[in-house]
Amino acid sequence: MISSINDSSTAQQLRPTTPPPPPRSQQSALTNEQTHTLQSILEQYDPESLSSEDATSIVEQLKSEGIAPGKALEDAMSSAGFDAKQIGELAGLGEGRPQRPLPSTATFEVIA
Predict the structure, then answer these.
(1) What's the pLDDT score for residue 29?
(2) pLDDT value at position 25?
(3) What separation, in Å, do the N-terminal and C-terminal C-alpha atoms of the chain show?
(4) What is the spatial distance between Cα 71 and Cα 74, in angstroms, rounded to a whole number?
(5) CA-to-CA distance for 75 and 107, rounded, in angstroms?
(6) How far apart are CA 97 and CA 2, in angstroms?
(7) pLDDT the model gives residue 44
(8) Residues whose CB is less than 8 angstroms from the CB of residue 45 and which lie 6 or more positions away in sequence, other chains included
(9) Rounded to an integer, what distance in angstroms lies between the CA atom of residue 53 and that of residue 17?
């Protein structure tokens, strides 16, 4: 037979002592390192002439650096002169999956 744990010291050991950190997308601000990384990424592009390839590259770089979408990212991008919503749309993020350009080595074969 299994009995319940009534010992309060054992019950306390099972409880986390600190709450878990919020998910990255809910963080209220970017860290200094994330802000610096974002600036390094964005300085490679002209906000007035972004292509879908540029936007996809920005999104992929942000993802690889662990910078999640959210209000903090949107605000930081806006401060740098970029529209996060436009970048997302150009990268195809609102359409289910991001569109990725085919590599220059891609070939196609027509099968009749």
Answers:
(1) 86
(2) 43
(3) 70
(4) 5
(5) 40
(6) 48
(7) 96
(8) 54, 58, 82
(9) 46
3-state secondary structure 33-97: HHHHHHHHHHCCCCCCCCCHHHHHHHHHHHHHCCCCCCHHHHHHHHHCCCCHHHHHHHCCHHHCC
- Structure-token match 């027509």, residue found: 110
pLDDT value of residue 98? 47
Amino acid at 41: I
Three-state SS letters, 12-26: HHHCCCCCCCCCHHH
pLDDT of residue 101: 65
Alpha carbons 24 and 30: distance in angstroms, whole number: 9
Assess contact for 98 and 56: CB atoms under 8 A: yes
CA atoms within 13 A on the CB side of 62: 25
Do the Cβ atoms of 58 and 87 come closer than 8 Å?
A: yes
Decide: 85 and 47 in contact? Cβ < 8 Å.
Answer: no
CA distances in angstroms from 82 to 13, 62, 89, 92, listed in the order given: 48, 14, 13, 17
